[in-house]
Design the sequence.
């Protein structure tokens, strides 16, 4: 019997090994799960959105997206529309920057926004600031008449006429000297607060902006210092505001301290602007709360600090419910937002919070009227 050649034995071994590999490959493919395929409907302008029935997130109703969302699953706390944060805005006017630098304190500025129809409340607000030893602030004027009034009163270095290009729309409405953000229920008027805050959020010369409505009366010295301390305790705190009720679910935008050049704060402001433009019937406060609903907020690690109602009460809690007084607490700031017009002024007078010299303010108003009249005659 002839011996079997070595090359033949080697060939049989290789063939046997190949057969084993082939059988293993076939068995493995039998157990492979066929992946689910995503519909082509998910591709919208090169954006790929994935969803399947095993998602742990419930579908969110009421999205105001620009395209069909039938096949999409929205995650909680996601924006309802794409939010594009501007890398920068148009350069700020040099004279405005100069006034910001002059009036900043501890790298922050205190501001309010007002029109001519609010002049009495504005000057009362200024007098109360002085009593609280707060003399650095800026008034952003919606109309030329109030700006001129402040100049005549000696506040030129603290007065800024809001430039036309800061208004996103309805310039004539905002420039009107008859409209009063405190007493006229025109939601659109309140939108200017978001636009001003957004502009200031890009200013490099300051670290924070403290916005107060003129019906937010300051009673304590060093209130701003206290809030700035809260802002800087945690590096991720970007927004401080008050609560509009005791349930801590609604932010009140009459008081806002905001860290400038902060990503999340800029995102909230841009989203608020978009909501205001999509739904102009909403007030600035309602729009900002909708924007905040789309952010994931945590008490200990979130971007927002909510001030307590004892030290920062609204009018109902302070005057009617005696919330602070019953605990022997003197508030830092009271928001007189439950009365309008003459009722608000009478309430302030009865409680010693009306510091206005009406005769003096009226004399300034007469001077302003005379200046405006001569200007009109000169231009005609």
Sequence:
């Amino acid at each position: 019997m002839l011996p079997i050649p070595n090359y033949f034995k080697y060939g049989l071994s290789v063939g046997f090994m190949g057969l084993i590999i082939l059988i293993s490959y076939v068995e493995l493919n039998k157990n492979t799960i066929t992946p689910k395929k995503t519909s082509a409907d998910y591709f919208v302008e090169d954006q790929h959105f994935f969803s399947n029935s095993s998602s742990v997130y419930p579908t969110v109703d009421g999205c105001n997206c620009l395209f069909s969302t039938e096949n999409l699953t929205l995650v909680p706390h996601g924006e309802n529309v794409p939010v594009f944060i501007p890398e920068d805005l148009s350069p700020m006017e040099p004279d405005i920057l100069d006034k910001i630098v002059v009036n900043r304190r501890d790298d922050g500025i205190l501001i309010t926004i007002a029109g001519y129809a609010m002049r009495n409340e504005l000057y009362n607000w200024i007098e109360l600031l002085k009593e609280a030893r707060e003399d650095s602030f800026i008034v952003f004027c919606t109309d030329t008449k109030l700006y001129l009034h402040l100049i005549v009163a000696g506040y030129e270095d603290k007065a800024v006429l809001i430039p036309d290009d800061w208004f996103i729309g309805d310039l004539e409405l905002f420039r009107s000297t008859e409209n009063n953000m405190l007493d006229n229920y025109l939601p659109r008027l309140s939108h200017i607060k978001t636009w001003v805050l957004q502009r200031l959020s890009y200013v490099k010369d300051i670290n924070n902006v403290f916005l107060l409505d003129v019906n937010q009366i300051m009673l304590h010295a060093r209130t701003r210092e206290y809030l700035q301390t809260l802002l800087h305790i945690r590096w991720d705190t970007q927004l401080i505001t008050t609560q509009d009720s005791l349930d801590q679910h609604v932010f009140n935008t009459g008081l806002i301290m905001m860290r400038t050049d902060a990503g999340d704060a800029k995102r909230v402001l841009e989203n608020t602007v978009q909501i205001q433009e999509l739904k102009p019937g909403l007030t600035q406060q309602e729009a900002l709360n909708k924007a905040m609903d789309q952010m994931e907020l945590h008490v200990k690690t979130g971007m927002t600090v909510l001030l307590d109602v004892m030290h920062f009460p609204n009018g109902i809690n302070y005057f009617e419910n005696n919330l602070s007084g019953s605990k022997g607490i003197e508030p830092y700031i009271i928001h007189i937002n439950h009365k309008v017009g003459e009722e608000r002024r009478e309430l302030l007078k009865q409680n010693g919070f009306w510091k206005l010299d009406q005769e003096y303010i009226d004399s300034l108003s007469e001077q302003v009227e005379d200046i405006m009249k001569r200007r009109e005659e000169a231009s005609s």
User: Anything to note?
Assistant: Confidence is low (pLDDT under 50) at residues 31-62. Residues 36-76 form one domain. Residues 234 and 242 are 18 Å apart (CA to CA). DSSP finds twelve helices and eleven strands in the chain.
